[in-house]
Each structure stands twice: as C-alpha cells, then as structure tokens.
Amino acid sequence: MELNNLYQSINLILPEIVLSASLVILVLADLIFHKDKRLIPYIAGIGIAITGAFVINQFGISGFGFQSTSQSIRNYGLIAVDSFGVFFKLIVIASSILIIFFSLSSSEIRKIKDRVGEYYALIFGMILGMFFMISATDLILIYLSLELLSLSSYVLAGFTKLQDRNSEAALKYLLYGAVSSGLMLFGISLVYGLTGSTNLYVINSLIQGPHVNLFTLSLAIILIFAGIGYKISSAPFHFWTPDVYEGAPITITAFLSVASKSAGFALLIRFIKTTFVSYINDNGEWTLINVFDWQSVLIAISILTMTLGNFSALWQNNLKRMLAYSSIAHAGYLLLGLVVLTNQGLLAILIYFIVYLLMNLGAFLVVMLIANKINSEDIDDYNGIGYTSPLLGVSLAIFLISLTGLPPTAGFIGKLYLFVALVDVKMITVAVIALLNSVVSLYYYVRVLKHMYLSKATDSTPSIIPTFGTGILVLVLVIPVLVFGIYFGPLVNLAKSCLVIIGF
Amino acid sequence: MMGFPILTLITFLPVLGMIIILFLKKEQGNTIKYTTLAITAIQVVLAIILLTNYNYSAAGVYEERSFQFIEKFRWIEIGGISWLGTVKIDYFLGVDGLSMPMVLLTALISFIAAISSLNINHSLKGYFALFLLLDTGMMGVFVALDFFLFYIFWELMLLPMYFLIGIWGGPRKEYAAIKFFIYTLFGSIFILLVMIGLYFSATETLADGTKVFTFDLLQLMNSGNYTADGILSPLNPNNLRFVAYLALFVGFAIKIPMFPFHTWLPDAHVEAPTPISVILAGVLLKMGTYGILRISYPIFPDITRDLMWWIAIFGMVNIIYGAFVALAQKDFKKLIAYSSVSHMGYVLLGMASLTSTGVNGAIFQMFNHGTITAMLFLIVGVVYDRAHTRGLDDFGGLALQMPAYTGFVTVAFFATIGLPSMSGFISEALVFVGAFGVDSIRVITMISALGILLGAGYMLWTLQRIFFGPLNQKWATLKDIDSREYAMFIPLTIIIIFLGVYPSAMLDIMNTSVNTLVNFLHNNFTVSSISGL
Amino acid sequence: MAQVGLTHFLVVSSILFSLGIYGIITRKNAVMVLMGIELILNSANINFVAFSKYGNLGINGQIVALFVIVLAAAEAAIALAIVLNIYKTYANVNVDEIDHLKD
Amino acid sequence: MTESVLSTLSLIILFLPLLGFTVVILLGKRFPKLYLFEVAILTIAFILSVVVMYSKLAYYLNSDIISSFNWITIGAAPLAGVINIELGIKIDNVTVIMLFVVNLISMLVHIFSIEYMHGDQRYTRYFANLGLFTFSMLGIVLTHNLLMMYIFWELVGLSSYLLIGHWYEKKSAADAAKKAFIVNRIGDIGMFIGILILFTHYKTFTFDTIFAQISQGNIPFNSEAWLTAAGILVFMGAVGKSAQFPLHVWLPDAMEGPTPVSALIHAATMVAAGVYLVTRIFVMLTADAMLVIAVVGAFTSLVAATIALTQNDIKKVLAYSTVSQLGYMIMSLGVGAYVFAFFHLVTHAFFKACLFLGAGSVIHAMHHEQDIRNMGGLRKKLPLTYATFLISTIAISGIPLTSGFLSKDGILAGTLAFGKLTGHWLIPIMGFTVAAMTAFYMFRLVIMTFHGEPRDHHKYDHAHESPWVMVGPLVVLAALSIFIWYTPNPLSPDAGWFMKEWVKTPSTVVPESSRFEFMQSASHETEVHGEVVHSPLYTETMHWAHYPAMGMSILLAGLGILFAFLFYQWKKINADNLATKIKPLYNFSLNKWYLDEAYDATAISGTLNFSKILSWFDNKIVDGAVNGAAWLGRFISSLSGLFDTFVVDGLVNFTAFFSGFIGLAFRKLQTGKVQTYIVFVVFAVIILLLFFKPF
After folding, report:
1. Which domains occur in chain C, in start order?
2. What pTM value is reported for the model?
3. pLDDT at residue B246 is higher than 50
4. D626 and B261 in contact by Cβ < 8 A?
C-alpha cells in the first residue's frame, strides 16, 4: 500500500493513537510512581480529554483508513471515519470521563489504590477496543476490537477481588464472552468462505449477486449476531448481564452498561447498514438486500429483550441487578430504532443514547454513592433514605422517572422519538407493546421511590451528604436530564448532524 | 389584550413558590405554609385580573385570533432534513370560554386546598413543594393550546399526586397511590399514541409557506390541514380516526372517571389527605372532560357525531350507577367519591347532547361540581380531623354539637342534591334541557333524571345518620369549626349561592365559545367539508 | 487415493467446532471448558486457511489465522489468571458450582 | 296606583320574608329577640298584600299584570334557535287572593307560634325557617313561568324539610323530614320532565307564551299524546306536593313537626300549592289528563277519609282529612270545576288552619298529649278553642251557613255534572261517600276531644285556656269560615262576588279533538266580559246538578254527624264491638292501608338491596374486571403486597398470578450456571436459524 494512504490513515486514527499512547504512559506512570498513585487518575483524565479533542476535531471529516490495494478494485479500508462514528466515540469519551470521576469517589476503587494504574490502563484498553469497534468496517478488525474490549473487561469485572462475587463475575463473563466471540469468529470464517472477503463493503456488493448459499450465509450472520448481541446484551444473548453487573465493581458495571453497549450498537448498526442495505430513498427508508430478514429478527429480538428485561426486573431486590435488567430492557427499546430500518429510527437511537448515558450513569452513580456508605444495594436498605439524604433521593427519583420515560424528563423525549419512528412506519402494534412494557417498567422503578419515600426511615437509615465534588457530579447528570426534557432542540440537532454513515 | 405574559405567570408562579420553599429550612414550617398560601392567593388575584380583562364576545375554540391572552413562540425547532420535515413545537398558551372557567376553578380550589393544608403536620417542605408543582400542572393543562405542551402538563401532575397520596395518605396509601398512578399512566399512554398519530397526519403552513407537521391543537382542528395519507387524516380512506378517538376517549375517561374506569377514584379519595381529595375532586376530574371538549371533540367532530349516543349512555350509567353505589357506602368519604362519579355523569350527558344548552350546562357543571365537591370533602375532613373515623353509622346528632358546621353541611348537601338557588341546580337543569332536546337521547335523559331522586336519597340519609337523631355521647366533646375552616367554607358557600342566583356570571363567559364549538362540531369534518378541499 | 479437498477440511473443522461446544457444555473443570473454547477458535482457523487456499483468495486467510492464534493465546493467559483467582476464592474450579450470582 | 307600582309592591311582599330569614338566621344566635322582627315583617307583608289585592281587584279586575326579565341568555344557539330563559311575576286575581291567604295565615301562625314555641331551644331558627317558607310559597304564587315555579317548588320542599325536622334530635322527626323531601322529589322528577317536554318544544318556560302556542295548534312534537303526557307529568308535581295517592304517605308523618307548622304548611298553604299548580296549567290539560287528575283526586280523598275514620292521634286525623280535602280540590279540577276548586282551596285554608291551630292549642293545654283517647270534656276548660274548633268542623263537614258548605257543594255539583256529561259516575259517588265520612270522623274528633268525661284526669286538671296570642288567630280564622265573607246567599256561591267577579274559569287552549266537548275555548263567541263560561250544555247541567248535590251533601253530612254522636256521644252503638266485628277492615284502615309497609317492602328495601348488590359488583367485578382485564387487579394488589413482604412471598404471589410461566420461566432461566447460559446461546442460534432461514 502506498505511503500517502498510510499517512492519511494515520490522520484518521489520531484519537486511537492518542489512546494507545496514554495507555503506555499510564503503565509507565504506574511503574514510576509505585509509591503514591494519586496522579494516575488525572493522567488518565488528561489522556481522555486529549482524545476527546481529537475526536471532536474529526467532525465533518470522513474517509477510509488502511485501504487494501491488493486484488481489490474498490478501495474500502479497514476503518471508516464518519460523523456517525464520531458521535458514538463522543458517547464513549463522555462516559469514560464520568467513569473516571466515579472511580475517584468509589470506595471500592479506593480500596485497591495500589493497583489503580492497571485499572486505568485496562479501562483505556476497553476504550481503545470500543473506538475500533465503532469505526471498523472489516470483519477481522471487528473481531479483534471486540476481543480487545472483552479481554480488558473480563479482567476489570473481577478486578477488585474484594468479594467472592467479583471473581465469579469475571469467570462467567470470560467463559460466556469467549464462547460468543468464538461463535462469531466461526461465522466470520464462513462469510469469508462464501464471499472471499472480510470487508463489509465488498461483502455487500458480493451478496447482491445471485449465487450465494443463503442457508450458510444466514447461519454465519446469526453466529455473528450472537457475538454482537452478547455485547449489547440483547435477549437471548443477555444471560451474562445480570450476574456480571451484580458481581463487577459498580464503576465497571456502569461503564459496561453505557459505553460498551453503545459501542456494540454502533457496531451492529454499521454492520447491518453497510453490509445489507442496498438503497436508501429520500425518506430515509432503507432497502435491504434480500438475503436475510433482518426486520423480523430484530422485531422478535427487541420485543423479547424488553419484555424479558422488564418482567425479570420486577422482583429484583438488589438495585444493581435491577438496573442490569432495566439496561437489558433499554437495549430492547434501542433495538426498536433499528427495527424500523429508517434514518428516523437511527436518529431516535442516537438521541436515546445521549439520554440513556445521562440517566443510566446517574442512577448507577447514586446507587454507588449510597453503597459506599452502607455497602449494600439491597432495596430494603433504602427505606426512607429519601428523607435522610434529600439530594441523592431526589436525583435518583428523577433518574428513575426518566428511565421510565415520563415527561418532563429527557427519558420521555428519547422514548417519544422511538415511538414517533415506529408510528411513522405504521408499526402501531409494536409501539403499543413497547408502551405497555414501559408501564410494566414503571412498577419496579416506582417501587424504589416507594422504598425511599413511602417507607418510614429507621434509625439505621444513613444520612448521606455527598461531598462537594460528588454533589457537582450528581447535578451535572441531573440538570441535563431535566433540561433536555423541556428543551431538547439541540439534542436532536446534534443527533441529526451525526446520521452520516460513510458509503451511502 | 395585555402584552404582559399573565398566563405564563399564573401557570409557573407555583414553581417559583416551590423553588422558594426548597430553599427554606425544614424547621420554618409556618413560613413554608404561608408562602404556599400567598402564592395561591396571588394566583387567585391573577385569575380575577384575567376575568376583568376577559372579552366575553371572543369565541376562541378553533380560531387563534379570537383566543385571549395568547402567548405563542417557537419552543423547539429542529432544522429540516429532506426526509423528516422541520420539527416544531410551540409554547402556545391562551384561554377561551372553555378554559376560562377551569382556570378560575383551579385558582380557587388551589387556594382553598392551601388553606386546608395548613394543618398538615409532617414533612411540610416536601408536601408543599409537591403541592405547588401539582398546581402548575393543573393550571398548565387548562391553558395549553399545543398538544405536546398539554401532554407535558398532563403528565406533570402524575408524580406529585402519587407522592401526595402515597406519603401523606391513609392506611392503604401505597395501594391507592400506585393504583391512581397506573390507571392514569395507562390512560395517558393512549393519549400519547394518538398525539403522535395526529402529528403525522396534519401539517401547518408556516409564514414562509413551508408545510410542517404540527402539534398545534388549533391547526389539528382544521380539516384542511390534513395530509392525504396520514393515518388519522379524514382524507385517507382507511384511516384510523375511529380507533384513535376511542383510545383518546379512554385516556380522558379514566380521569373523569367514567364507568367502568372509575374504580381508582374511591381508593384514591379515601386514602388521600383532605386537601388532596379536594384538588382531586375539584380539579383533576375536570381535566378528563375538559380534554374531551378541547381535544377529542373539535379534532374528531365526525366520530363525535357518530358516538354521541354512546357517550350519553355512559353518562347515564355514571349517574345512575354512581348514585346507587353511593347509596350503599358505609364510609363518608367513599360516599362523596361515588357521588362525584354520579355528578360527572351529568357532565358527560350534557356534552353528549352536542347542543349549546347541554354543553353550557356541562362546563358549568364542571365548575359547580368543582366547588361543591371540594366543599364536601372539606366537610369530611373536618369531621375526620376531630373524630378520626368516617363511618356513617358511628355518628349521630352532631347537629346539636356543631351547629355552624351543620349549617355549612346543609348548604353543601342541598347544593349537591341540586336544590334551586344553588349553582348545582342550574347546571344540571341546563344539562337536562340540552340533552332532552335531542331526539336520539331523550329516553336516556329521562332515565338519568332518576339520579336527582337517588342523589336526594343518599345525601339526606347521610345528613340524618351523621347530624340528626340523639347525640352520640362519644362525640359530646367535639369542637365546632374554627376560623380556618370558616375561611374555607364561606367563600365556597358564597360562590355556590351566588352562581345559583345569578348563573349568567359564569354562563356568559363560556356562552360564545360554546355556541361556536357546537356550530363547529355540527358543520366540520363532514364529507362535504372534506371533499370540498 | 482421493485428493484431499475443501470438504475434508470443512468436515474436520465442523467436527472440531461441535466437539468444542460439547466440551464447553459438559466439562465441569474450568480449564477443560477453556480448551473447548480453543477448539472452536481453531476450527475457525482451519476454515480460514482452507478457504484462502482453495478459494485462491491470497493469504488473507492465513493472516487472519495468525491473528486468531495470537488472540487465543492472550485470552488463554487472562482466562487462566481468572481461573487461578477463582481457585483462590473457592478452592475449586468447577464451573457448575460457581453459581452464587443468580435470581 | 299604576301597574308597575303593583308589581313592585308584590316583589316587596315576596322578598320581605327572605330578608327576615337572612337576618334572623345570621344574627339569631346573638339577638334572640329577632323573632319579633320576623313577625313584624310578616305583618307588613300582610298589610301590603291587602293593599295589592284591593287595588288589583278594584282597578285591574280583568287585566293581568306581568313583569319579567332575562335570567339566562344562551342567545342564538346552533340548531336550536334563540334560547333565553326569563323569570318574572304575573299578578292576576287568583294570585292576589292567594297572596292574601298565604300572608294572612302565615302572619297568624307567626303570632300563634310566639307562645306555642316559647322556650324552644331553636326558637329564632324556627322563625327564620317560617320566613324562608313564606318567601318560597309567595314565589310559587307569583311566578309567571314553569321554571320559577319549579325553583320555588323545591324551595318550599327545603323549608318544609327544615320545619318538619325542627326537632331533629327526635329520630322520628328527622325520618319524617327526609321522607317528605324524597317522596316529593319523586313527584318533582315527573314535573321536571313535563317541564322539559314543554321547554324543548317551545323554548320558553312562560305560561302565557306556551298556552298561546298551544291555542294556535302548535303542540309538543305535534302529537296530542305528548300534550297529555306533559299535562300529567307536570301534575305529578302536584301529586307529590298536595299529597295525592300514591305519594300522600309523607303528609301524616310530617305531623312530627311543630303544630303551627302543620297548620301553615301541611294544611293551608304548601299542600295547596299542588292545587294551585294545576289551576295554573288547567288550560292546557287534555281530556285524558283531566280524567286522570279527577280519578287520582277522587281516589285520594276516599282513601284518606277511610283512614281518618280510625286514627286516634288528633293531628293524624286532621292530616288525613287534609289529604282528603286536597283530593277534593284536585278532583274538582279534574272534572272542570275550576272555580270551585280554587274556592275550596281558600275556604279550606282558613278552616283547616283553624283546626290545626286549635289542635295546637289543645296539645299545648294538654302538655303535648296528642292521643284523643286520653282527652275528652275539654270544652269546659278551653271554651274559646272549642268554639272555634267546632265552627271549623261544621265548615269542613259542609253544613250550610259555612264557607265549607259553599265550596264543597260546588265541587259535588261539578262532579255530578261531570258524571252526567261523561258517564263517569264513579267520581261523584266517591265524592259523596267522602262527604259523609268527613262529617263522621270530624265530629268523632270533636266529641272525643271536647265532649264527654275527661279520660286522663291528671292532664285534664292542669289544662287551661291558651293566652290571646294563640286564641286570637283561632278566632280570626273561625270567623273567616262563615259564609258571609264570600256570598250574601248562604245556599249558593254563584251570587257571591268571589265567583261572579274575581275568579273565572279560563278558556282552555287544548285542540278540539283532545278535550271534553263541554270545555269551551276562547275561539267561541260566548265571552261575557272576559269570562269564558262553559258551553251552554255544561252550564245547564251545573244548574241541574246544583240542588240534588246540595240536598244529598247536606243529608250525608247530617248522617255522618248523627252516627258520630250515636257512636261516641250517646254511646248507642259500641265502637269497639263494631271494630272487633269488622276487624280486618278496621285494621286495614287503622294501618293506613298498609301503604308504608308496602313501600318499605318493595321500593325502599328494593333500592337499598339493589344498591348493595351494585356496590358489591363495583368492588368485586368492575374493579376486578377492569384492573384484571389483563391481570392488572391482582397485579397491582399483589405488587403492593409484594412491596411490603419479603421477595420470597412476593415472588410466590408473583409467579402465582403471573399467568404461570413468564415470570417463572424468566426466573428459571437465570440459573447462575454459566454452562446453562451457553446452552441457551447455542439453542438460540439454532432456533433463530430455523425461524429465519431464507427458505
């Protein structure tokens, strides 16, 4: 390949390079200041900040990196940089920064301060994996980035080793993840066999041809979907989620539930759109290549996911676990945006992700702050906590309401756009099912409120006054949730500007 | 018309109060109470200012220029992309004859409820903050002219209500609260769906001539704005307007509450603290019927015309059924709750008639029921505060012990029965006159008239069981009402009697709009008016 | 004697795949489960190599296989570390006894 | 004095009592003397009403004075045309006479009460309520439209409720009050619907407008059936208020109220309102309607009379005689004898008020003893009361030289004529029977109360004549029961100014096809100075009927009196033996035809049970069904249970109701064994493949 191509490809992956660099720096720093590691988090923060700067810098740029010149007439590369990718990278960046702040105030992480260097290094590994997942357009890179992400998260899931449940979570996550990625890899190999290429664009053009063994192809697709489905924890590939979320340190749980989910969605969307969409008309409706009935699969999967998530969440007593199920349910809602196979659905997904980032991280943050004090996430320990610690109580209430999707919170806007997308393509039934689902979800969210406010506070109820920093952190998440509920113009505009997926 | 944004003020003033309260210390109980009182009082003053500047001859209903105190500016605008037109949502407030009475009612009832809240004794801060938030929600629903805005306000009341019942309520408060919550949410989901459906069915032409989808209620009332293929567009041969209407109607009917969706009401009332029952019965129930008048009727006149007979039937069922069930109650508050069910039936009946008299009566009945039932719940509150029981058979002879109280009770009860010279009579009479004038529902009306008898039955029976007969010595120590309670009862009594003697004071406010509305209902969305496009 | 063709490779790889799944599902010992995973990965590798050879697709396949092998190694390393950790806490590595996290 | 002055005066008369009520009810607690203010107000009102009556009859004999205003303006309503609801008053001869009667009796009762109610713990409240009642009654009298009629109709209902229940600490009193109001409501619903029919068609409530429309042949929904219906329905109001069968049951119970109240409301004025209402709508009554009214009236009077025969409570007897007399008036309206009906209304008002106040005086003297079996011989102790009571009794029995004779005789003649013209002979027969019974039970009352030997000596010895404030009114009323005020000729009222000048049968407006042919309409050129005489046939039939009726009524009344004396004075026949001989009949009468029991058994308990069933239905089915339309009911309940119980129980409940598997299955899936999860994954892949394989 020519150097200039390589050179401009380097330009395109500057954020990733920064990430890798800061990863190395972190490791070194870990070695250097092995006495006092107070600096490490700030280094990490700076690293992410710089990355963020480069990502923002990528706005408007679009192009392929690492185009293969060999025997291929088309020059599609391994990675694609486009506003869609940038959007998700920003989501990841935002959540990463928040996670770093979380970690600073998390007692779990404070307990392991001597290994904090590795902790952040691994987080950077995850971020790097996500970045590549988001922009990968080649099955191999997809697989590699997915593994990179997974491997780091396996370790992090069991990182603290404070309780037995940590290592158990790690093991489950590992085995489950390894198997799914194994299946995915096998699927990839089949695709490679059928088409002779691993590049999504090439595959797209090849499967439009007549002579493809559709059965093998769908098997391959389903296997690959198993891999992705496990990342976005959509039923029936979600089983690891509750156990791991409950077992992992809460910061990592939060990170998994937002960042890696978003990366997974970015991957899924890009995979489907670049590989299977043949044509997009002016109304933004996608026409699929007639090899695989994505729509029905997605409808089935999404309804199954949200129903299962909501109904299982109903009788959870551990808040972390309940939030795990609720995040499964939200994966279901998010899939609705893909079900409709229109740009409007895509728009809805993007909007929902911003909202989801805020409210889900917020919920986890409050749970964490409370757990710091009473180190339990059991709902019965929340009785009357709304009175003893008003700020946390009210904020958690707001986050949960937003997760339910009631106005005037951002959650409502997210749901609204999803339903708008559904109604627009006249999928009324699906919309109704989804709405009823959100009624069900109301129960377990409200149940928390009930414990916080309607049950009397006992003398054992702790009164938690957050430190100035954490207080700010909470507000940073609460205020947008409310503001976007009332004034969501900028939100939507941002999302609208990020719909471009290169290639069409 | 004053340029001053008075509607915004009257709507969001409580939020301001809420913020103030949130900054107050927990210990400053009285400050909190009197802040709330002041806020609601100012609201009343603002309402009166509205009334004094109100133009009685402006119709409103469907034409924007004849709405009053309009405040309209672009709230959310999202630049267009070819395949998804500009999304625009207006912040659009205004009042006409349909909403003006409700605004007055809301201000009044909130004020009364605030007075009655003065004896709330635990976790005041939260209570009054939520109280004021609720107030904003209610006021907003009545002044919003944009469906989206309307929906936001509609949902806004949900949570405060949930907590107000759930935290300050009676023994089975959790059950009642969650039940209220679920029912209302269930209803509002249908409203949401219809809202989205309408959004995609009608476009509004902006100043620059571009057509955009719209949530603007007034635009949705214009059959000319509908697109050819919108799922709720009358032009679309296989549209879903009928289904949508039913969905919307159920959404509102749950709030009314209309049989068979009424069962949340008794529980909610019995468990809620007195001031909240007052607001619940005084204002919240009206939102259902108001929603139907403001949204279902003018946006779906065609379906409305087809279904008026059914609405009348449901009205009748509400009246008779509610009355009968009330007759069997042993709990004072439950009895009042069911009497509300019965009396909201009159509103339905009046609306179903689609005649000026009927609709006038319906709206007037909404107002009167607001004041009268508020008074009834206050009455229950008074006796419950003192005796800590509501069992109808636990009392007897209270008239000897609490004469002044009994005086007010008599007024309220006879107002409920629909005694002439009290406001209730006029509205019920108008409802009957209107409904009776329509051939198709004349028989229904006659049957409904039984409600008058049953009403007298359970009310007088209650009066006798609690107040007459020999004094039950257990209550020989009860105090008669104090100044706070006088302050709640006297204004209501005056209003009830004043409107009974001089109903035009209220009827003239709504008359023009109602006539316009009825005209609109009969002449729009007809085959001709649509094919004429 | 018959020429060894693509089919044979595919048969082998699918047998390996199935064995891998079987091992993962049935084995109690975590290490054995990991081996099952290795089997799956290698079945995929065989596919890659076979396809690239018989499909005249250049060397892409082989390169992929190399990637995978490396990755498998890394995965194994992490996996064993975690298993060790498990052994420390539970004093055994029976996957079906490690089920404290559940509903 | 001009018409406007007249109407202003009458408005003042109307609102004076309201003023009295308001002032006394609000300030009564602080200033106990305020009852005097109330009495004063009534006196003024009375004087004014005399003035009004005089000037009306003197200057505007044949013209009606109407003044009205727009109350509610709907304006030009779509599809309905202009709707404006107006209130107003109409002053014609009937009105002013009623004004006089009401104010007079009301004033007398006020005065009487000063002594009678002395020392009552709610003394001022009592006078306030009297004021409220007078106001409402005057409203009925003055109104020129149906709506206002209905309004004041309800208001008298209210005031009667308050007055009957004046001693509400007595359960019986409270019950009676409730009963009165509710039973009246039944009639009122009919009246209301009747009014609705008329309004829906004519878009007005005003009598004259409606009648004018009808006379032009514009009848409701263009069907005479509806016209009849309207008439009968409005009449139902009268059935309730004037205690006609089958709604008469409230009146006897209403005697729980203070006796002066019974005199004012339940004898003289309010119960007469029903009759007054029928006179108001008389002109729009079709033949069928009139027949119904006649029958109802006649039957009522018979029923009541038979019951009165055996009652032993002095007030109960009077109550039933009132019902009976009201039946008379209604009947007489039914047979078209409009003038006599109104005439009897007036005369009856006076002597019945007198009787009640007399009874009050007796009860007062006997320290609230009401059972006539414990009285007797009181004429020595209470000479004046006795005298007045006797005069009124003679009057009600219809003995010549009394007002009662004149009016009653007229009514009987009317029924007789009616029988002859239409062949409905049953009505006159009932009428005459009642006449006899009336005489009998009234004299039974007199004899048992005043004659013979005292039965309860203790009470007797303490009895003494009441003071003048009480006796005065008696004397006035008794005096008014003499014929001379009404006509110079004691045998025929026709000569009297009352009949000749003041009150005249108005011309019916009902279409030819649906009215008795003897009823005349204005269209016929037989008008004599404004009055519309009946058709010649009717007039001569009346003349034919006059003397037979007179003779028979005198004869029957005489017989009645004779038997009364035989039974109770001279003890020639032993009443008790007779009673035991005809035990069933006796009990039937004594127990008021078992009507109350019947109602309790059917209507009342029926309603209550039905309501109980419905409320059960509401709790179990509706709540259950709507909530549980999709398991929601149990869902909510068990959720709220779930919240409070530990998760295990909650889980049990949950899986129990949650249509089995969903919850259960989901839970079972999450085994915690990673290998199981992987199995699921593999299966998921296979299933997906099977479902979505492209062929």
Report:
1. 6-94 (1.10.287.3510)
2. 0.87
3. yes
4. yes
